[in-house]
Design goal:
Four copies of one chain form a homotetramer. Chain A has 194 residues and is mostly helical. The first copy, chain A, has helices spanning 2-20, 39-65, 72-86, 88-97, 102-130, 135-140, 144-162, 164-179, 183-193. Chain A is globular. Chains A and B meet through helix 1 and helix 2 of A and helix 1, helix 3, helix 4 and helix 5 of B.
Chain lengths: 194, 194, 194, 194
């Protein structure tokens, strides 16, 4: 039951984050199609962030599917992850409203990086609490996506000062490699449960 | 359990969308009854969008009642639907604040159309994953509402440039034909479960 | 399970309504204690509306505790109630920001009245669907609170034009008579279940 | 089941409070790093308030884990706690936007104090309803944190007029002593259930 409540709270926070980001899509004053042009970069940032929050929700979902017991450490590692994800509406709006200026684009990457680290810490905390026969550990395997993502963010942050388009291209690329849901966990669980 | 969490997350997002739309009802500065007049078109747009989100929640509810297992594909098809529904507050406010100007009214229809397509894709994804004896497939039958709605939206979008009143009349008409909850699914489930 | 999802969605909407109302408490620009004075009427309106939403949540909770099956009619009667409750942030802010001017104070009463009617309709829909041995019907008994409240709102609305203080006094009085949770339902359930 | 719904509603409200606070992080107009400087005190206030809401959620979680039955009194004591917590976004923004001016900093402490008192009242209401063998009572033991916190807030409020830094230092200190989750309850439950 404890696990259910942690999942419900996380779902609530993620549902709110993903939805209030849309409040940054300020309603344009004009009624011409051109009135939408300044909204476009904000809209594209929104799409990217929606994708990221959706991926986090999806992976969070799979991760806790492979978790039986919730400890105090897991609770706080989870809240730490939610903290960084809660900064998405801010970093998304700053990047979007400034049409991908270098510093806001780099700042967006910093939030992505911190969220990725927080996710990794949460994952390790769960694995540590599960001990040797950790279902999650065997499920994630070598976890190349989890290890590659922060490296790519780290590369993208300085590259934002060369070209924000390269940086945001990397952010989009990382989202796309995650879009494929973590079938490894599904498979590992499948051999145990289904 | 997986299904419960998908439902809980969707309920959360829909509850937030339906509620934050009301934030676009800007509190008027005046204290006279006339101060409510400029709020009226925003209010009517809010009523229409409230109805649409309520219908989507209701049908989503019935659809997942007829769904046993959730796959990765269903998760993403569901998030895709939530994405388009999350644009309702924006499109509602743009249409309402501009007193049904042609382009915002057409844009509202585009969001309705994309949400209807996303709902259809989600439905087909569930049916495909359920295989030959799909409970959902037999429940929805010929699905004339699901097929008629996008056609009507497609007609309404260009008609918004002739008269926004015709377009918004069609949007309202489609909402009304959906208001009758999907008794077919209730019936099909009834013969199996109750 | 159907009932659970209706409750979860209603809880979500009520939780959001009760919380976003606080966004109307605009952060004052000054740092003196006097800076809080213009916030005071908005704050008091917030307290009253918080109380009302809390009472609705509480009674909704008891009502569905005495409900076993959810029909399409109940779903829509519930959404109808949520619609009127969703207007609380708007009517609260309009009344509060205008320091209880007559028309906003009357408008607040209209929203209260419509919500009370919607609650009554929901209750009757549940009772009708439960048939002769309706647990809810026996639980609410003569339902004097449910019948008195709309009468008091109806009296308060025109009185807002005489004195907004009388009207808001009546709104507060009705909240206080509801504050006592519906022990009748608890008792009726208690004899059956506990 | 009653308990589940109270927990779900509380989770919803807490999830919304923790997330809408981020809306006070106004997106800066500039694109330079310096544009973030005025955001910094708001950001630090946000971090502190996030921590507090997370602690309340965590302790609320443990408290209701040790609660079997929910009475009307508990429902209202819980809503009373949620009311004070709902003022966090307001008090956080007022303190943050004014760079810890004395009165806003003291006001932040008043809200902290009222929430602590509300938490204490809720705890006592649960213990009273559980009677002599109260699981919660034995779990919290001497409850030195619960008794020390309001005393520290009471000291910090006047100290805000001497130096807001001392006051906010005390607020941070109290948060840190709570950060350690209530292992006593975990232990007490552990001996009973696990």
């Amino acid at each position: 039951m404890e696990k259910n409540r942690l999942e419900a709270f996380s779902d609530g926070v993620l549902a709110i984050i993903i939805t209030i980001m849309v409040l940054e899509l300020k309603v344009p004053h004009g009624v011409e199609l051109e009135a939408l042009i300044p909204v476009l970069p904000v809209f594209l940032s929104y799409v990217l962030s929606f994708l990221y929050i959706a991926i986090y929700w999806n992976n969070h979902h799979h991760m806790f599917h492979a978790t039986k017991r919730v400890s105090g450490g897991i609770l706080w590692a989870n809240l730490h992850l939610l903290f960084w994800l809660s900064l998405f509406p801010f970093s998304t709006a700053w990047m979007g409203e400034n049409h991908l200026a270098p510093i806001p684009t780099a700042a967006y990457g910093v939030v992505l990086l911190m969220a990725a680290i927080a996710y990794y810490v949460l994952q390790q905390t769960i694995i540590a609490s599960q001990g040797r026969d950790s279902l999650l550990k065997s499920a994630i395997g070598r976890d190349w996506k989890g290890k590659l993502s922060p490296v790519l963010y780290l590369a993208a942050i300085p590259l934002a000062f060369v070209s924000p388009w390269i940086a945001s291209g990397i952010y989009t690329f990382v989202a796309l490699i995650w879009l494929i849901p973590d079938r490894r966990i599904e498979r590992a669980l499948g051999t145990q449960e289904h």
